[in-house]
Predict the 3D structure of the following.
Amino acid sequence: MRALARIAAPRNGRLVGVAALAAAAVAPSPSSISNPSISITSENIRWASSKSRWKQRQGSDYYAREAKVRGLKSRAAFKLLEMDSRYRLFKRGQTVIDLGYAPGSWSQVAVERTKPNGRVVGIDIIPAQPPRGVSTIQGNFLSPGVQQLVKDYLVEFAQRRSPSVPEEEPSEEGGNIITERPSYIDAERAESVESGHEEPLENDRRLVDIVLSDMSAPWVQTTGFSSNTLSNPYFRMMNTSGMSFRDHAGSMDLCLAALQFASDTLKAGGHFVCKFYQGAEDKDLELKLKKMFAKVLREKPDSSRSESREAYFVALGRKGDATL
């Protein structure tokens, strides 16, 4: 027993010594309490550690590495690619609206799938460098003025897209006389007026084939006002607050705003894709989608992280007379 006591005593003493050192290291000294710079330094250390963890996760993520190799703006492009390969969303020459487009990976996919004559318009409140071939508007999409600006742009673009084509007619002298032929839009409107069945103005403004919404409420900017860079993926992609109900409620508001815009601008047979955070209210949104679209599906792409609560509604084939 004495031998056992002699063997155990140094170990216990060592443990006590280690515990005492740890307690001394943790216990704040009077000078550290009076000096606020020490607490600021600890906050910076925690922030740097969080940023390092984010970079480490991005470096080990397959989709993040693959996006960098392919020249895509972010790994989110693979989510849209998966949904397109499954449901055939895109066709050549379509008009696509990308809500919350920054940093632009979904717009890159849309441009590639709708070329050569497609039109992609991105809207985001955050400044970002638009991908090649994408027209962008910086502004708060929830603002009625910004939504009206997008609608006016679509109408103006549709008018520019089909200019009148000069038509040559033979003259008596053997030459050609160039006469201006009206555009097909003017011809269709004239025919509808003559037949007495002119379409309502609402249908004239339904010029969009696909509405995409990858919107999330951005954090309020508190730092980095002196930075001139247009994009910083670490600071700009932190769109979740960590409170599941708050994230869910915010995503529902954004989805409803996007759906209302789609109700005003989407053609019959058009498609609608929106991101949401799962919760109690997504059933109500699904019912509204089923009233407007022929087929509504929930999607959780493989490229979406398993720990994330995000999911997507894919609504296919807008019903002609259905509105929100």
Notes: Residues 2-26 form the longest helix (25 residues). The mean pLDDT is 76. The first strand starts at residue 95 and ends at 99. The chain has twelve helices and nine strands.
